Every structure is written in C-alpha cells, then in structure tokens.
Amino acid sequence: MTCCNTQDFCVAAGETFHPTIRWSTDTYTSVPITAITQAAPAAITAMNHGLPDGWPCAVVGAGGMNQINAQHYPPTAADWQKGTVVDSNTVALGNVSSALYSPYTNGGFLVYGKPGVLTGAVVTLTIWDGPNSPNAPLVALSSSGGGIAIDMNLMTITPTLQTAALAWKTGFYRLDVTDASGTVTQLSSGTITID
C-alpha cells in the first residue's frame, strides 16, 4: 500500500486538480468484529475501531457472511472498501450491500493499513516535463510552502493545482512525504494529463 504506488490522473482543462491521498503504512490494524448487518450498506460493529473516516478497509474471516470477506490476506487492491465511520464502534461499507448475504454468525476482523504519521511531516508534489527530466520542475507544491493541505483528523493529503493557466498538457509527477525524523517516502508517481 505504500510502495511506489503508480497512479495516473486526467484533469479537464480549467478545472482544479485536488485528489485526496491517504498514506497508510505496511502495518495492518485488525479489530475484532462483533456484528455485521444484512443491509445496504453493510454496517460492521468493531469496538473502538480507530478507522479514519473514508479510509480503505476490509473484512477478514467473518463467520457465516463469507461473501463479505476479502479474497486475500493481506488484502489486495480489489479487496479494499471505503469505510464510512458511523461512530467509534461502527463502520459502514458504502459500496457493499450485504442484504442478500448469508447471516453473520461470529468472528472476523476489520482490517486496515495503519495511517502514516503526518505530525511534523512535509508533503511535496513535483511535476516535470518527462519521467527522468533533468529540467527544472514544471510545478513544485509543498505542505510547508502552500498548495498541499494535510488534514490531521481524516489523515488525508490534498494537493491543489489550478490548471487554467498551465501551458503543458502532460506532466510526470512524484508525491513524497518527509516525516518529522527526515525519512522520505515516495507515496505515488505517474502522469497528470490536462485534457
């Protein structure tokens, strides 16, 4: 979930580029499940789950309601679902209807990647004209210099780039986070195309 995630973006010319990025580590949090509703959306009871709202999560090993379980452990990209926090003990899976699933009987875990520590971190987004360009960046944004917001409650990173005045059509980007100790982690890279 953290290793050099390649993601390409396409933004309509004149629109604002502002993706929401969630940085999770390779350490998984597993919270015991005590109930899952047969409803749309499925609601999972996992006491004091600690999941940030909107964070990717998966169900592993739930008894009875086998249809809701992730197909792999650790979960792969297809296994993750967006978790909507209902309260400190309940998470709804907005894209999952369990209304026709078998009834939940017992066990299982709500699993999610532990959020990276954003306290004291600096996030940078750098865009070049080529994948290994020696040229100066086309754009350089930073959470310390402006253009990138860090939400400590939702544990999200949101770069904001106005595209209306940009002369380039395709840029090659890299999104990095430097934690408080100075360790740099590449969160994402790829292309940004303005169409």
Q: Based on the structure, what is the oligomeric state of the protein chains?
A: single chain
Order of helices and strands: EEEEEEEEEEEEEEEEEE
Question: Which strand order spans the largest sheet, edge to edge or round the barrel?
Answer: 5-11-8-9-10-7-6
Query: Looking at the structure, what is the overall shape?
Result: elongated
Descriptive notes:
The chain has 195 residues and is mainly beta. The chain folds into 2 domains: 5-23 and 117-194, Immunoglobulins (Immunoglobulin-like), CATH 2.60.40.10; 27-114, Ubiquitin-activating enzyme E1, FCCH domain (Elongation Factor Tu (Ef-tu), domain 3, Beta Barrel). The protein contains no helices and 18 strands. It has strands at 5-6, 9-11, 16-17, 21-22, 24-32, 35-36, 42-45, 56-60, 81-87, 90-93, 109-115, 122-128, 139-142, 148-151, 156-159, 161-162, 170-178, 184-194. Strands 5-11-8-9-10-7-6 form a 7-stranded antiparallel sheet, with no helix packed on it. Strands 1, 2, 12, 13, 17 and 18 form a 6-stranded mixed sheet that branches. A 3-stranded antiparallel sheet has the order 4-15-14, with no helix packed on it. A hairpin with a 4-residue loop joins β14 (148-151) and β15. It is elongated. The protein starts with a strand and ends with a strand.
Overview features:
single chain, 195 residues, mainly beta, Immunoglobulin-like, Elongation Factor Tu (Ef-tu), domain 3, 2 domains, 7-stranded antiparallel sheet, 6-stranded mixed sheet, 18 strands, elongated
